Amino acid sequence: MRNHRVLFAVLLACGVLLSGMTFALAATSALPAHSYIHVQLGPSETQAESGRLLLFAIDAKDAEAEAAKHGGKVDAVDANPFRGSQNAVAAREVSRIVPGEVIDIDTDRRAFPQGWSKLPPGDYYVQAVLDVHHDYNYSGRDAGDLVSPVVKLHLPAAGTPTLSLDKTLPRRDPWVLPPRAPKALQAYLADARAQSRDIDFVSPALSAFWGRPIHMRARVLLPPGYVANAKTTWPTVYFTQGFGGNNDRVIGELVSVYAAMKQRKMPPMIWVFLDESSPTGTTEFADSVNNGPWGTALTTELIRTWNTTTGWTPTSTAAS
């Protein structure tokens, strides 16, 4: 009888063990697949970096068809705001990476429109971008960001590919108009630049809200024939740019306005092109519990300070 009890206990233990192994195997097979890519900070870089690491992938056939319209080379893979799901994106935060260091990015953990392991198998162009200022969602890649070369990969990859962040993007000169800009606009560029002034104002109200200095920026265009400290007064237009605009991206508009005034197609006025960009979108110069008192700062600080300290002589204002 005692032997029977021992045998029963052994069989029961084996049954429990086998059931546990079966459950573990089933649970393991149910785990979602994850794919990884190595990203290295190029050994030629001279300092540690941090930021938001972004990985972009696009179907090779789509990329090559689009590149064929512009010279035939795929030299960048980027998000497309008008075709959001055309490109796959994966991301992770990088608190610190030193030259030569390699980190992994899980392309299924934080990915859009889906994890990369679920992408249709095939060839893709892939590029890595380190967004050092955390402002890619507003302005895209810009000066100071690091990028890798564009690499053609077969996904899902058999191994773990490596991309290297070898290039730091330089600052673009905003006063160099693109080649496609009309020649008539190019002709007025130098004169418009001579009549332009940069404004960088630290707002007491916004600085108090954020607990650090907050700058309000703008480009001011003075009309042709403007003479400082003269008795002539000028209407002033305050121009806001909308989402995607900033001080560097307003030059084409500024030169167009100058040309119109010079050609007497527009009355001479002082134009203030306000920069309302922020990492999370445009401030709209509205008082906000999230962004701070931008409206108050504009109307009671910035405009008032300009009118009393710059020597400009506006007579009235209008918003655009």
Shape: elongated
Largest sheet: 7 strands, antiparallel
By CATH, the superfamily of the largest domain comes out as: Alpha/Beta hydrolase fold, catalytic domain
CATH architecture of the largest domain: 3-Layer(aba) Sandwich
What is the domain total for the residues?
2
Features:
elongated; single chain; Rossmann fold; 320 residues; alpha+beta; 2 domains; seven-stranded antiparallel beta sheet
Q: How would you describe this structure to a colleague?
A:
This protein has 320 residues and is of the alpha+beta class. The chain folds into 2 domains: 36-168, no CATH class; 183-319, 3-Layer(aba) Sandwich (Rossmann fold). It contains 8 helices and 19 strands. The chain has helices at 2-30, 60-67, 136-139, 183-187, 189-194, 204-210, 251-262, 294-309, and strands at 36-41, 49-59, 87-97, 102-106, 111-112, 122-131, 146-147, 151-155, 162-165, 167-168, 196-202, 215-221, 234-240, 270-275, 277-278, 281-282, 287-288, 292-293, 314-319. Strands 2, 3, 5, 6, 7, 8 and 10 form a 7-stranded antiparallel beta sheet that branches. It has a 5-stranded mixed beta sheet with strand order 11-12-14-13-19. A 3-stranded mixed beta sheet has the order 4-1-9, with no helix packed on it. The longest helix is centred in the N-terminal third of the chain and has 29 residues, at 2-30. The chain starts with a helix and ends with a strand.
